[in-house]
Batch of 2 targets.
Target 1
Amino acid sequence: VTIIRGALDLQDKAVHIAMTPIDKVYMLPIDTIMDRITMREIYSTGHSRIPIYGGSRKNIIGVLLTKSLIMYSPDEARALKTFPINTIPTVSAETPLFDILNTFQEGRSHMAIVIEKEENMPIGIITLEDVLEELIQEEIYDESDTRIGLAVKLDTGDQLILASKKRRGESRNQVYHKNKFKSPKSRAGSGQGTPSKFEIESNRAGDLMIFDEPSMVPTGASY
């Protein structure tokens, strides 16, 4: 039933609803040197496709398939412009998701640049996975997903932990699970024990984010 409802909604939902805004997209400039540091950075994002731009981030000239990097040694430190760069189609922000799904099914690309019609400027990126998530109405996770922790300050004694899963290198598609607990300081003072392993590891990794107001707590899918 969920998939049927999602399929019916694809005709009514526009591309801009499911896209990733252009300022949130991981990209590389065409003059990048593909050395060991850059390749490690690309790997850490977990992306299979990297948009490539020339000059400005809004001048996207193609897409790099990360699987093609296996053929090259980072010790060569080659210029990115010498690598095979695939063309990337453009689509209007108001295009129905059903139409872009048909375009993706043709197999020429699983990523497209979303263009704002009036200014004819890119405002985001849409992928096949984005459309499929709208179809099945839930997030798609794979082996590159990681779990992070967000702590939200509610008052002087209590906090709210939001354990979320996010794809490595991305900040969207987060699913939050709330769990109220006493803050480490207040629990230590009241004899309620030491911080949990989750809190300790999250603090060490720098994953804890403190919000001043409960209204700032992220809910649902967000950027």
Target 2
Amino acid sequence: MHGNKKERAPKQAPQPAETVKQQENAAVPESKPQDVSAPKTLPEREEAPSVNDGTEDNGAAGAAESAKDTAAEGAAVKSVASKADTAAEGEKHEENEKPEKSEQEGKAENAEKAQESGTGGSPSPAAESRAPSKPSEPSEPSEPPSKLSEPSNLLEPSAREKLRAAVGRLGWKKWAAIAAVFAVLLGAGLFLAFGTTHVIERSDRDAKENIYMVVKPGTTASEISDHLTRLGVIDSRLRFWWLMKLQGDAQKFKTGTYAFAPHMDEQAVLDKLVSGDTTVVRFTIPEGFGIKEIAKRLADEGLVDEQEFLAEAKDFAPYDYMKKRPNERYAAEGYLFPDTYEIHSEVTPEAIMKMMAEDFDTRLTPELRQQAAAKNLSIHDLVTLASLVEKEARYDEDRPIIAQVFFKRLQMGMPLQSDTTLQYLMAGPKEDVSIEDTKIDSPYNTYQHAGLPPGPIASPGMKSILAVLNPASTDYLYFVADRQGHNHYSQTYDEHLAIVEQVR
């Protein structure tokens, strides 16, 4: 039995094994508590107890031998777990020593890894190969793939984020400018209604001669843009209007007469209007002036040749209502509106007449045209009758009454018997008309011919035009003016003769 003791002496290894365990534990850093359960990840080790259970009926020698094997196996398992923990700690230590990357670099790296792997949120193969090297419980994901498994919207920015990034790069002011240009291209434009502009139109828009326009106080953006486009000075009313709005020049126009070339650049036209680049001569045509008087006034100003102007006036008719009637002397008579004008010193007779006719057409508003139509008056008849009132009345209060006298005579078929029509036929004005004068053979002689003369005999002002549209309500059929120009009215011819004896 003594020999057996010598053989069993080494089997008292459990105590030295504990010492070995302490030495190994001292050499290897102590693992975390959760890592002690690492053998649970190794299912093959759980079969060891079943093997020991099969040897219980052996003797003391078998139990001792089994205990030794179990102790050695446990030590080996703990050694493996400790080494695994050491490796994991080493990897963590290396990762902690790496410099932290910026958030933008991290997102860029994640995007590259996502493109390599083919999916927005799954980890790359390199990350998958490293994951098993870190023993951890299955319920807790390992740290390295945590960033790779973030939602895909971090790797692929949404449309809103892309828009914000684009806006941030360009800046809001640049975006506002782009939006303004886009609005111009789309054509969102409304035109403001302002005062009156007097414009000279040209029938030949491709001509090399200048086009003239008068800008008076109260003239504004919409009127100017409208006329410039219609006359062929500019090609785009919308572009001109938006240039004014964007540059804030709509209220900076200088009054005066401007000379423009056909089809000018809109910016050049705008600069001209803002700078007040005008070279003009001012002239005034009073109410009641006829074509001959207008021609003489312009010739005296050195603007036209008198005979050339009269020759041009014979057939001048830019509007349909101005077309020359049979027996009418001048188509332009009555339609060159009396006003004060500014004109370029090198203007032609046609240009002056166009400017004055445009003035008349602008003042004859749609409302006034409707009133004339309600009285069965054409524009030609309206101007013709207004020209008679203009020449007969010296004072404003007489205009509506004289208009009513003419209306009643026309309704009754009586001749108008206006001395002013006779004076129109004479070479010059005559203070008193004689009986012989009333016998002149002419369609303009309202003593010999009933109804209106062939056309206007002068340029009426607005007051005379309004008097014809709104005549007084009287029963007068006769009137005569005294030496001071005041008119006296009567209903019968006898009353009229008595008044004539009194005032003359």
